[in-house]
UniProtKB/TrEMBL annotation, chains A, B:
<keyword id="KW-0143">Chaperone</keyword>
<keyword id="KW-0547">Nucleotide-binding</keyword>
<dbReference type="Pfam" id="PF03308">
    <property type="entry name" value="MeaB"/>
</dbReference>
<dbReference type="GO" id="GO:0005525">
    <property type="term" value="F:GTP binding"/>
</dbReference>
<keyword id="KW-0378">Hydrolase</keyword>
<comment type="similarity">
    <text>Belongs to the SIMIBI class G3E GTPase family. ArgK/MeaB subfamily.</text>
</comment>
<dbReference type="InterPro" id="IPR005129">
    <property type="entry name" value="GTPase_ArgK"/>
</dbReference>
<protein>
    <submittedName>
        <fullName>Methylmalonyl Co-A mutase-associated GTPase MeaB</fullName>
    </submittedName>
</protein>
<dbReference type="GO" id="GO:0003924">
    <property type="term" value="F:GTPase activity"/>
</dbReference>
<dbReference type="InterPro" id="IPR052040">
    <property type="entry name" value="GTPase/Isobutyryl-CoA_mutase"/>
</dbReference>
<keyword id="KW-0342">GTP-binding</keyword>
<dbReference type="InterPro" id="IPR027417">
    <property type="entry name" value="P-loop_NTPase"/>
</dbReference>
Length: 315, 315
């Protein structure tokens, strides 16, 4: 098979049949913004929407990778197929995620019921806001029951993860990311489930108390009460409780009608991101580029205000 | 004067004359996405482009606020007018920056040569990518010689700051944000000047050595060699060296022609952000909203792929 022009229908068929290489190839096409992506998404559309998409976020040092790893194990023990996307929104320049933390995931590297994939934006237009929903759709259509989306590194917007997931898990740990810092990051407003990891360490009980208080004080637009789960991901302690909390939230989403709402909002964000990327590519592409550069020079020189420039760009 | 419809010409005139309340009012109009903003930007355009825009970024705990405060003092001692924008991209939900750290800035609250302003996105379309360049333009046109842009909180994209500034300062400190974490965040690729703050603490020399090595290994698109400055911002030690490093970078930018390049790129980003916000507002506004929602529902239901939906949205 040529590396240049894969047969999309065949690839999608094989991915749906659970062939890991076909799944990997489709995710690469997303990452590389392949020109055939539209064809891929059209082919996948009818098969997506079944997976439970779970986002994991939290400050550095709380054990996100270890927790993801432990979750994969617990979900596999329940015979669920699992996809893992580790996204790194903070490395647009280096063109690739640092994979050190990923090595631990090799616990599951040979399990055919688990797809693990790191993803960077590779600097293409729209970045991860554009590519992550499409990669999720690939794993979803390939038959994953749960797709875990973990953000790697610091500096990313935790809020973006919340926008992509059915259920957002916010991880904290004693001594890493204290209460005030967490509040600053706004992550106490986005969790559907909170985890205090490294719960065998001193201070875990205090983090839980603080979390419960702060979660109680935060007004939510819905009537879900986010649980706080204690785990020691490295030993597996509490991970079953976490799985139950995730499944509890998934059930609530379905029963309350919130799942459809969240997914419609997600689809809206995705359609907008694709539309914006298409327009940017038009503006910055051959022909358009000269226009934008000329307008920008006018603004930089103070000859033109940016609104008028934007009008001319759109018009 | 009515709070509803200020006389823009009068406001701009008073802001240019250095009246703090007029400057504050104009920044508020940016923050609130006032409908008169276009008029404001048109009036300001000819007067902007003189200030040296300096971005400050780094992991939590390195002393960003203290360093900003110390820098303001050192710049004021040189009789320069200073504007400070503390932006908080991580709090779209709460509708306002947490201002605890800002209290220290009250050292300069009564100095008429200093404007200090915290800014949150208040959830409007385009967020801080849209509003920050406009707030910078206000301070610039009001006669600030230096505009310091400091990001508050964790979770923001440090990279965005680099896109807004002439000179980006990356702060580290011993014990806060170790080398590997910093590399992950990609912040070792964006600094024009590096600072090891809290240099009186153990480990400062090691952070400097690591920084020098990593900065040396990082390929830059230009031939600027980022200096590494040791400071103790709380006592003022090393802050004059930092000011000299900033001024050295500013001179190099001018002489090498990079200043014009950076500003043209910045203007390009700004024009794009305004154009995108205008389109989003059209899509999500009365009339457009129904279209986008309908398309999104189709995508969520698997009846439509997101590319086709995006085409219909644009078309």
């Amino acid at each position: 098979m040529s590396r240049q022009r894969p047969d999309v229908g065949d690839l999608v068929e094989r991915a749906r049949g659970g062939e890991p290489r076909a799944v990997a190839r489709l995710v690469s096409m997303v990452e590389d913004a392949s020109p055939q992506l539209r064809e891929v998404m059209t082919a996948l559309a009818p098969y997506a929407g079944r997976a439970h998409v779970v986002g994991l976020t939290g400050p550095p040092g709380v054990g996100k990778s270890t927790s993801t790893n432990a979750l994969v194990g617990a979900l596999r023990a329940r015979d669920l197929r699992v996809g893992v996307l580790a996204v790194d929104p903070s490395s647009p320049f280096s063109g690739g995620a640092l994979l050190g933390d990923r090595i631990r995931m090799s616990d599951h590297a040979l399990d055919p019921g688990v797809y693990i994939r790191s993803m960077a934006s590779r600097g293409h237009l729209g970045g991860l806001a554009w590519s992550t929903p499409q990669a999720i759709r690939v794993l979803d259509a390939a038959g994953c029951d749960v797709v875990l989306v973990e953000t790697v590194g610091v500096g990313q917007s935790e809020v973006e993860v919340a926008g992509l997931a059915d259920t957002t898990v916010v991880l904290l740990a004693p001594g890493a990311g204290d209460g005030v810092q967490a509040a600053k990051a706004g992550i106490l407003e986005i969790g559907d489930v909170y985890v205090v990891n490294k719960a065998d360490r001193e201070g875990a009980e205090q983090v839980r108390r603080e979390l419960r208080t702060m979660v109680g004080l935060t007004a939510r637009a819905d009537d879900w009460k986010p649980p706080v789960v204690l785990t020691v991901a490295a030993s597996g302690q509490g991970v079953d409780d976490l799985v139950e909390a995730l499944q509890g939230h998934r059930s609530w989403l379905g029963e309350s009608g919130r799942l459809a709402q969240r997914r419609a909002r997600r689809a809206r964000d995705e359609v907008e991101a694709i539309a914006v990327a298409a327009l940017r590519s038009r503006w910055e592409g051959v022909g358009g580029h000269a226009d934008l550069d000329r307008l920008a020079s006018g603004v930089a020189a103070g000859e033109l205000d940016p609104y008028t420039a934007a009008d001319r760009l759109i018009g």
